[in-house]
Specification:
homodimer; 359 residues; alpha/beta; TIM Barrel; Lyase, Ornithine Decarboxylase, Chain A, domain 1; 2 domains; 28% helix; disordered N terminus
């Protein structure tokens, strides 16, 4: 092997895109959502904190005062426990899955039990270990159905769950009748139950205090995404220019000759593509900015590169910006026909990541 | 911090999806493409070996006989050099970018120079260090234009480049006139040049020996993707079932109530979603298999979950298969309206990865 003395450089040069993650903005968003009501405010940090890095985002939120965290799977809970140390409560949405007892016990996780099977698995393998209950109030994705819960409720409550929760299917659409329908179902299922309750993620928090119960659990709003329209932007993505060229009228650019120039066009090839999470579908509609000037993507998105029409930019920009003050994750999501959540969770592994600390 | 004694378990349980990567299949594909002509056969391992892991794929290909590797950026070259040790040649498609001289020198990389600026940067910062030249034969993405090359050619050749290469824009479409046009441009630009040449990636190899020159550089075909129709499948992805439920006629499933049941439907919620690279756009069209039986995705793809109609499956499957013998990366790409390349490079970080060794 080369590099026995550790001589290979660790710091990337200028050839990779720079992703800046503003932890102070994450904390500001958490505080703003915390002020939206009187419930305690948790934090959803699944999917590596929506792609932004659980090792940095988790501790920043804990320092700001968050005491209840939510992850998707037990493995994520282990990573979060390493980052947070003992103390904060870590809930697992997928509940107690077969084979996870050791992980749940050792990392002190609180599985959100989704079914009779999971409840039996939990009380048999980890008697006395804390758990929560996830109810299905109508989304039909995770959690116990009303009939299942009715049959199991007394047994489950005797085991003293720490939380009872459910999830809204249409909270991004405040006027959708599904919201009140799920609220009423959840109220019915938890009537006379003396256990802390949680129904609202970011969208639910914005629906108002009736949806807050004892604990809210914002996710996407922390990271600057809709439906939290007042969110502070969190991510900036600057992509270096590899080279520029002048393309003549009638010449094509990129795979499949997808773009043909109808004017003399200055083309910049920049160093990020769909392997970096710049979703390939955004190709024909996407744009970036060069010092605030909007510059359109032309041709297809390549695996490691984009080609951009910078004819209208003066000078030779060293990089173009995909995310930042001029363009949010939701704008980029629109280019790709998706939602800001997917733009966040797709942010690539090749970016050089810099964290602005929360002081 | 918890876990001072390293007590937190490292092995995932059953709650995450299992991604199996068959290195023997990668090697078989490399050998098949190597037999397609008499040129030397390199290997493209950019984007973390198309998402499959450069640390495992790189050494397997080197052991099989590959001596020329290609990455997108210098940082990837450093990772590959660590995995391969000294010996194999590592080319960098983005060339010599400002600030990369130390990385290029220490990791013994060969930048593929794309412009006059890059050539000047290279000979000034690393005189005598090996390099190659990338020519633009019509794609207008990377490489020197014919006019630029004509002006620079004698100067560049005096510095003794190790390789002269270009890239085809339409090689996936064998009958596209762009192929012969680029071939002729490349032949013209390299006439009477006594330097090894490379034009063909997977698609170019399949166009026939006229496109092979001295070195070919297959990428996607190694990993089981089109246009190499005879590729051996490389990846298998099995996703565990979190829970199942019966949904009544008229009930909805998932975000936005996107699916409404028109029959009593058995729904499985499984533990992978768009944060794992199961592109959200595939939602309405996608399917998985349960012991070979095709089962359709219903509702929207969630961040960490999919909901699947398993009404027609007997028994209680423990997992459903997204990729494998019954469904290729290109089939899944069709569901999402994209190409197999993007399905590969999006494969998620939460999967438990198992490598079938190349013996």
């Amino acid at each position: 092997m080369l590099d026995p003395a550790g001589k290979l450089p660790k710091a990337p040069g200028m050839s990779v895109a720079q992703l800046t993650i503003d932890l102070a903005a994450v904390v500001a968003n958490w505080r703003a959502l915390d002020r939206a009501g009187s419930a305690e405010t948790g934090a959803v940090v699944k999917a590596d904190a929506y792609g932004l890095g659980i090792d940095d985002v988790g501790p920043a939120l804990a320092k700001a005062g968050a005491r209840h965290f939510f992850v998707a799977a037990a493995e994520e809970g282990v990573a979060l426990r390493r980052a947070l140390g003992p103390g904060p409560v870590i809930y697992v949405f997928s509940g107690h899955m077969a084979g996870d007892a050791d992980v749940i016990r050792t990392a002190a996780l609180v599985p959100l039990i989704n079914s009779v099977d999971q409840l039996l698995c939990h009380v048999e393998s980890l008697p006395g270990h804390p758990f929560g209950v996830q109810l299905d109030s109508g989304m039909n994705r995770l959690g116990m159905e009303p009939s299942e819960w009715a049959a199991l409720r007394d047994l489950a409550l005797a085991q003293k769950p720490e939380l009872i929760m459910s999830h809204l299917a249409c909270a991004d659409e405040p006027k959708h009748p599904m919201n009140t329908q799920q609220l009423n179902t959840f109220l019915g299922m938890t009537q006379d139950v003396d256990v802390p309750r949680s129904l609202a993620a970011t969208g639910g928090i914005l629906l108002g205090p009736a949806y807050h119960f004892e604990l809210t659990r914002p996710g996407v709003g922390l990271y600057g995404g809709l439906p939290f329209v007042d969110a502070v932007p969190v991510v900036t993505l600057d992509i270096p220019v590899i080279q520029t060229r002048e393309v003549q009228v009638g010449e094509s650019v990129g795979y499949g000759n997808a773009f043909v120039a109808d004017r003399v066009t200055k083309v910049a090839t920049i160093a990020a593509g769909y392997a970096d999470g710049l979703i390939r579908a955004m190709g024909p509609r996407a744009a970036l900015t060069a010092e605030g000037v909007k510059v359109p993507v032309i041709g297809r998105v390549s695996m490691d590169m984009l080609t951009v029409d910078i004819t209208d930019v003066a000078g030779e920009p060293e990089s173009l910006q995909m995310l930042g003050a001029h363009q949010s994750v939701d704008t980029v999501a629109e280019y790709a026909g998706t939602i800001g959540y997917e733009v966040l969770t797709s942010l690539g592994a090749r970016y050089k990541r810099t964290y602005v600390p929360h002081t």
